[in-house]
Specification:
five-stranded mixed β-sheet, alpha/beta, single chain, two-stranded parallel ribbon, disulfide bond, 230 residues, Thioredoxin domain-containing protein, elongated
Amino acid sequence: MADALLLPRRFIASSSAAPASSSSASSSAPSRLAPFSPPSSPLRARLAAAHQHPRPRRLARHQLFQVYAADPESSAGEQPKWWEKNAGPNMIDIHSTVEFLDALRDAGERLVIVEFYGTWCGSCRALFPRLCRTALENPDILFLKVNFDENKPMCKRLNVKVLPFFHFYRGADGLLEAFSCSLAKFQKLKDAIAIHNTDRCSIGPPVGVGNVDLLGSASPQEKPAEASPR
């Protein structure tokens, strides 16, 4: 108390008021260390979300080639091959001689058109869409598809040497016509349909392939089939 009395009055007033002024200054003045928080907006929210998921790493040139080269193979594996497609219930794939004979027997008096084809045959592939369209336009005709490579002994016994090759069968009449036909000569197939797809009644059981022994044990001499020109 004695020391306080010795100090000037102005010094005592200023020293006692200093804490109040400093506290009020710190409370009123904004701090320079406080972070700036701008107003929120949809764009800013999207940008913030994008920063949470960093961009994928860019692939090198050879890696990009590997990725794009693998895609066509994977997509192609999901799609059926051209010879595996069928136009409808009146188009059937034949995988053996027994299936072929059974199909002819069960067809009765129905006209049966047999196409002998090869998966490697460009003419067969070019003609196939037109054949499917013809099958859709003639639901009363039975279309049989015979893969030459799967049924070589049978095809040789039926004298199939050029692909695509066609046989026409009907009931007890057996084999009506046989010829080679490409896309350029497709009218030949349509003319044969107009001739043979008429109402008729045969007497007797279906004869199938006639006198040809398709189930014999002796295998004929095999020669590669040829593709007819388109």
